[in-house]
UniProtKB/TrEMBL annotation:
This is Putative aldehyde dehydrogenase family 7 member A1 homolog. SUPFAM superfamilies: ALDH-like (SSF53720). InterPro entries: Ald_DH/histidinol_DH, Ald_DH_C, Ald_DH_N, Aldehyde_DH_dom, ALDH7A1-like. The gene is alh-9. Pfam families: Aldedh. Keywords: NAD, Oxidoreductase. Its EC number is 1.2.1.3. Residues 24-481 form the Aldehyde dehydrogenase domain. GO terms for molecular function: aldehyde dehydrogenase (NAD+) activity.
Length: 502
């Protein structure tokens, strides 16, 4: 069966109308074989604005639906996702090229965030605050915000939307989603699954959750609309640089989840066997196409020769190939441009004095599919392409001798998403996690930089954009806070002892 037929079979099973992915102008492809899987009709700027208007009306009804009822709808969404897990996971593998366990893992992440959001729907707490005035009470409430516009990247085609949507819905908002133009079929599938939950719930307003198929221009409609209260945008720092000032200019709110250039430090006391396995997954998993992929490693001189040759060997032996037909651990890059970027970065690294191990195209017999052998580059110092995110499986390694200098080098890049340290020395790990340590939104000990759980807040600093999604109190980004002071006395004392007797 061709992948196009396999995708159509899944979409039909999940209830997606064939007209949604045939006869249109947006071609979708599977990076697994390079074959075309669909031709989707695209939204126009007018239809995008109409969708936003409907979402605004839906918000007005949804914001007064009690939180626990909103949670019930997300609970049903989680049930539908459980039922659809195998199909949706396979579609993620077809469209993003992920190995089966990662495709399924991404759907599991959707289920996890639904569970989290259901509990949250009864815990949207504000504080009661001591007031300086007698006979007064002060408190804060968290209210729904409005229409949430979600713009997402190809590499987590379903999970990122669900992180945003599950929280946005329990927080009382409506959602309009512009998925990546490189992964539109999974978006149609997600939309159908959520619509089934909404139908079972029964009493949800029309247009509560919508999807807009298209490119940057359609995303821009969300960015520029004054009716979109929050733009949650996941993608490259290049995209964030365009989106953020536009949203700021209209005083809208942004959650930015942008690029990463994630580093790690391997200390002399590290468990090297565990380090090797953690780095191998962090750096080669998802063919290096995670925002949290391990891209830089600082290895202490005392253990360099015990770790690096073993890592190079692991890179040489890792299986690269069609993730749907073989048990390969490394699947394809998303497209030719991604492969070309990898080749260019490796050439630049050589010019900068690096020694390249691996890289190059792996032939799977599919002319339009781009599989690359993961590469390790031993660098004389942190310079050249090591300072930037290349969205491909390249791991740069630099030798260090002074721990504090290694932390400084670790932080000396523009992105600030994820980081890790490998050590069994308490002083080193605590320093790395301290205010003087890693400057990233995520800092790990003895695990790699990728593979976050939904319970923690997810996001990063600096050019990663500063946003937080998923767990902890990230829900507050999807609500507005109101501070209320209530006078239940017969007097009118003014704050700070101000007198105003008339
Ligand atoms: P991309 O920036 O090319 O596209 C992301 C999304 O933004 C797409 O939906 C695209 O259509 C839209 N877009 C692009 N320009 C726009 C504009 N001017 N206005 C409105 N929308 C616009 O990114 P990509 O190649 O799909 O994904 C890879 C990048 O995403 C990497 O840099 C990766 O690190 C990052 N990423 C970050 C996170 C995170 O949580 N920090 C998660 C996943 C991916």
């Amino acid at each position: 069966m061709t992948l196009s037929n396999a995708a159509a079979e899944i979409l039909s099973k999940l209830g997606v109308d064939e007209a949604a992915y045939t006869g249109g102008t947006l071609a979708s492809y599977s990076p697994v074989t390079g074959e075309q899987t669909g031709a989707l009709p695209e939204a126009t700027i007018d239809s995008a604005n109409a969708a936003i208007a409907t979402a605004k009306q839906a918000f007005k009804a949804w914001r007064v639906t009690p939180g626990p009822q909103r949670g019930e709808m997300v609970r049903l969404f989680g049930e539908e996702l459980r039922a659809a897990k195998q199909d949706l996971g396979r579609l993620v593998s077809i469209e993003a090229g992920k190995i089966p366990s990662e495709g399924l893992g991404e759907v599991q992440e959707m289920i996890d965030i639904c569970d989290f959001a259901v509990g949250l729907s009864r815990q949207l707490y504000g504080l009661t605050i001591a007031t300086e005035r007698p006979g007064h009470r002060m408190m804060e409430q968290w209210h729904p915000l409005g229409v949430v516009g979600v713009i997402s990247a190809f590499n987590f085609p379903v999970a990122v939307w669900s992180w945003n949507t599950a929280l946005a819905l329990v927080c009382g908002n409506s959602v309009v989603w512009k998925p990546s133009e490189k992964s539109p079929l999974t978006a149609l599938a997600c939309d159908a699954i959520l619509k089934r939950a909404i139908a079972r719930f029964g009493d949800a307003p029309e247009g509560l959750a919508q999807v807009l198929i298209g490119g940057a221009d359609v995303g821009n409609a969300l960015v520029e609309s004054p009716d979109v209260a929050l733009v949650s945008a996941t993608g490259s720092t290049r995209m964030g640089r365009i989106v953020a000032p536009k949203v700021a200019a209209r005083f809208g709110r942004c959650i930015l989840e942008l690029g990463g250039n994630n580093g790690g430090i391997v200390c002399p006391s590290a468990d090297l066997d565990m380090t090797l396995r953690a780095v191998a997954f962090g750096a080669m998993g998802t063919a290096g196409q995670r925002c949290t992929t391990q891209r830089r490693l600082f290895v202490h001189a005392d253990v360099y020769d015990d770790l690096v040759p073993g890592l190079i060997k692991a890179y040489e032996s890792v299986s690269v190939g069609n993730p749907l037909e073989t048990d390969s651990l490394v699947g394809p890059l998303i497209d030719k441009a991604a492969f070309d970027n990898m080749e260019k970065a490796l050439a630049d690294a050589k010019t900068a004095g690096g020694t390249v191990h691996g890289g190059g195209r792996v032939d799977t017999g599919a002319e339009n599919a781009y599989y690359a052998r993961p590469a390790i580059v031993e660098m004389p110092s942190q310079c050249g392409p090591m300072l930037e995110e290349t969205f491909a499986p390249i791991l740069y390694i630099v030798k260090y001798t002074d721990f504090e200098e290694a932390i400084e080098a670790h932080n000396a890049v523009a992105a600030g998403l994820s980081s890790s340290i490998f050590t069994t020395d308490l002083r080193e790990s605590e320093l790395f996690l301290s205010a003087a340590g890693s400057d990233c939104g995520i800092a790990n000990v003895n695990i790699g930089t990728s593979g976050a759980e939904i319970g923690g807040a997810f996001g990063g600093e600096k050019e990663t954009g500063g946003g937080r999604e998923s767990g902890s109190d990230a829900w507050k980004g999807y609500m507005r806070r109101a501070t209320n002071t209530i006078n239940y006395s017969r007097e009118l004392p003014l704050a700070q002892g101000v007198k105003f007797d008339i």
